[in-house]
Amino acid sequence: MHQMTLAEIARGLADKKFSSEELTKVLLARITQLDPQLNSFISLTEDLAIEQAKAADTRRANGESGALLGAPIAHKDLFCTQGIRTSCGSKMLDNFKAPYDATVVAKLAAAGAVTLGKTNMDEFAMGSANESSWYGAVKNPWNLEHVPGGSSGGSAAAVAARLLPAATATDTGGSIRQPAAFTNLTGLKPTYGRVSRWGMIAYASSLDQGGPLARTAEDCAILLQGMAGFDPNDSTSIDEPVPDYSASLGESLQGLRIGVPKEYFSAGLDPRIAELIQNSIQQLQKLGAVIKEISLPNMQHAIPAYYVIAPAEASSNLSRFDGVRFGHRCENPENLIDLYKRSRGEGFGAEVQRRIMVGAYALSAGYYDAYYLKAQKIRRLVKNDFMAAFNEVDIILGPTTPNPAWKLGAKNSDPVAAYLEDVYTITANLAGLPGLSMPAGFVDGLPVGVQLLAPYFQEGRLLNVAHQYQLNTDWHTRTPTGF
Ligand code: GLN
């Protein structure tokens, strides 16, 4: 039962092969049995899950239908869930029970999805390895000595290990696509503004975007359908109609123009990954796509710009966690300054403190123009590169990451080494574009992802290309041994 995709579950439930309650119980038992190896959940919500599953079964018995009605999922632990701990992977919020549901959570619940729990993540979504969580590192089910990617590593590891079919995640600089690549999943970062950020604890507000992590493009279409849409509570949410994503999955790739940036195949890319990317290009050519070399000349400046902008926004967003308004409060403060200092010093981990310091520095008088303003200018150049490229091609294709998942602890002593691994993903966030990662093969038994980028609001195009690819390849069907 645990091998079923969301699409298969929807068919099984519609055909009355099993009930949502039965399926939910099977998956909860599987999580209890297998998750101790992975640490992919921070909280399990068994009672809520059974209650939601029973309610979904009743709605179906009363004639309702819908692809998410009775479908088991989990939420990354930065989506606020009413009455349930929402920790953001941080000691700071270990005792925080959100007083309301995030829009994404409320929308999926209304569609009938069943919440099995809250998944582990890098603290405040800062990281690419899921090692900065206060609740401990998450392990990659493909090799328990390796990281699952981050910051949505809990959602990725749980779905890859078949603990559940799909989960929500967020992507500020790659945190949906990179863990998807590291665990053999399909993950989609939507256009900025497509999915409401209301109730999603902010890391870098101009870059953060929620999206689906699942095994197939077909399932990402189903989950995105339940997440996307205008939200008057989020002033950056965009009032554009949401297309039927599943309906966009039938289109031929004949004549599709795929741009491959020459900058992607530089010295930093593992040659074995380069070869797998070439194979995926050939596969898409067989399906009718036309390949064109393009250039993204400002790509080399994207990492430094991102690692100024994201910490700058984080330093502002995280100021609310002061032991008074939100978050952990130290014991016996002597005065207000002592209260702030010790509450924040005890509540935040090392990576979060590092980013707050970098961000506050970049925003300070005298350095604002030199760092923050300059980074914003680079951001515009990166966007302009994409706009020029999309005049010539329909999608852009390349690797999701330069290397496969590294060993736990391998980059702990050198944060910049981890930042460099984001080279292919962060440009989409800087430009606000949608991006998808899908399985493209293995290197030393570890999964490799191919990334597709599209113009604004072309999520349907990305999902269709990935779906056509998945109809003709079987990488996405591989299951990690032991799961
Ligand atoms: N690795 C990037 C960072 O640490 C991206 C994280 C994310 O997308 N949340 O900022």
Structure description:
The protein is built from 15 helices and eleven strands. By secondary structure, the chain is of the alpha/beta class. An eleven-stranded mixed beta sheet has the order 1-3-2-4-6-5-10-11-9-7-8, sandwiched between helices. A hairpin with a 2-residue loop joins β10 and β11. The model has no long low-confidence stretch (mean pLDDT 97). It binds glutamine. The site of glutamine has 13 residues, from loops.
What is the gist of this entry?
Helix content is 38%, strand content 13%.
* Apparent shape: globular
Spatial separation of the terminal alpha carbons: 13 Å
Going by CATH, the homologous superfamily of the domain at 6-254 and 434-477 would be Amidase signature (AS) domain
**Count the helices. How many?**
15
The low-confidence runs, each spanning 5 or more residues with pLDDT under 50, are none
Specify the helix fraction band: 25-40%
Topology-level CATH name of the domain at 6-254 and 434-477: Amidase signature (AS) enzymes
Q: What class, by secondary structure content?
A: alpha/beta
Q: Going across the biggest sheet, name each strand in turn.
A: 1-3-2-4-6-5-10-11-9-7-8
- CATH uppermost class of the domain at 6-254 and 434-477: Alpha Beta
Query: Strand content of the residues, in percent?
Result: 5-15%
Rg computed from alpha carbons, rounded to a whole number of angstroms = 21 Å
What would CATH call the architecture of the domain at 6-254 and 434-477?
Alpha-Beta Complex
Tell me the number of strands.
11
Bound molecules: glutamine
Give the averaged pLDDT, no decimals. 97
